[in-house]
Structure prediction request, 199 residues.
Amino acid sequence: MLKSYFVYDLIEAGCDEAGRGCLAGPVMAAAVILPKDFQNDLLRDSKKLSSMQRSLLRPKIEKQALAWAVASVSSNEIDVINILNASFLAMHKAISELKIVPQLLLIDGNRFTPYVNIPHKCIVQGDDKYFSIAAASVLAKTYRDDYMMDLHKEFPQYHWSRNKGYPTFKHREAILQNGITLYHRKSFNLVGQLKLPFN
Prediction:
């Protein structure tokens, strides 16, 4: 069972991102403040949940959270500041949009750029240890997946409805065949080990 808080007496916001390893699309992050008595038997790291489970959880999280926010950083900005800094920036943007100012940030992972005047605690695999981080992982993942589903309508040849921009064989093959879009991250190795076929 996940934990409801790190420090009981502080207003805590769990923070996580989605889309860091993708070849296309933004990186998205969420920040979530939950009640101290929040419990949910299904909620855990979004990667361990099915798409249907995440879809069921999202409205429950949004309804029960004391405050929540989702923010993104575009592929163009990722190319300028790199994906790690873009992930931190997306988290900062989400934190800044919270209607309640947290007193402690619980960050999934082992690194974070400090947010002004709010202390933070980095927690490796935090999205499988604390409800607030798990909730943030679900919101970030579902909002990003929805975004990529919308992009798929414009660029169906990249199969984003299935791969959501991650480096699958079909996605990389489509890049070789069709070139890149303005949503692709030019600073990434977009085709991996794939080579253009001989004519």
